Amino acid sequence: MSRHDNRQPGQIRPITIEKSIAPHAQGSVLISFGNTKVICAAMIEESVPRWMKEQNVPGGWITAEYSMLPYSTLTRKQRDSSRGRPDGRGTEIQRLIGRSLRAVVDLKKLGQRTLWVDCDVLQADGGTRTAAITGASLAVELAGRWLVEQGKIKELPVKNRVAAVSVGIVAGEVLVDLDYLEDKDAEVDMNVVMTDKLDYVEVQGSGEESVFSASQLEKLTSAAKSGIEQLLAIQKSALG
């Protein structure tokens, strides 16, 4: 099957990473997965959430916020603030980003501080959550390096990098890194998050149009692993 943008089934979209896009953040990147563009910025707050203080939990915390800017989609997307309630999808995605980052950061080494990670979608063309996780991993690492450079902590609190990619079955074929046109027609849709040791952090999969077999699941996770290996190499070259 030929994909509409002439990619091979296992080929990710062109990825670009621009560092230090938000000057006031301690770590930031603009990451593009093809036409999906997300700004990921990490800022440090010198305190921890109240529940951590009350329960005497040692170390720090990472929390993520995700939003799609009004002009990120073809028709204007209303802001949560003007709707008066948070978007359920956005809430689910920011929890996924937070879990993915906490899985690879040593919170004790972070010390008694909170790392706020904001992921704002500038342009959406499928895979916004996977781009956000892949970019947020770099923003957090840059913020960790800043803490070390400032003498606030002794060593980088980041244990591993983390990256994520979407995979799906479209017209019976397993495809990696689906854009919007592919995603809307997918029979099976999955998001896979892995560390740079290729351990799974999270797998979110559902049969959108149909059920899927154990052998299809194996093909999907294998394709995701290959896509994530490509992303990890790009992350490495971006941060050195």
General description of the model:
The chain is of the alpha+beta class. The chain has a single domain, classed as Ribosomal Protein S5, domain 2 (2-Layer Sandwich). 34% of the residues lie in helices and 29% in strands. It contains seven helices and nine strands. The protein has helices spanning 50-54, 80-83, 88-102, 107-110, 128-149, 180-184, 214-239, and strands at residues 15-19, 27-33, 36-45, 61-68, 114-123, 162-170, 173-176, 188-195, 200-207. The strands form two sheets. A five-stranded mixed beta sheet has the order 1-2-3-5-4. A four-stranded antiparallel beta sheet has the order 7-6-8-9, with helices on both faces. The model has no long low-confidence stretch (mean pLDDT 95).
Write the topology of this structure.
Blueprint: E1 15-19, E2 27-33, E3 36-45, H1 50-54, E4 61-68, H2 80-83, H3 88-102, H4 107-110, E5 114-123, H5 128-149, E6 162-170, E7 173-176, H6 180-184, E8 188-195, E9 200-207, H7 214-239
Parallel strand pairs: 4-5
Antiparallel strand pairs: 1-2, 2-3, 3-5, 6-7, 6-8, 8-9
Helix pairs in contact: 3-5
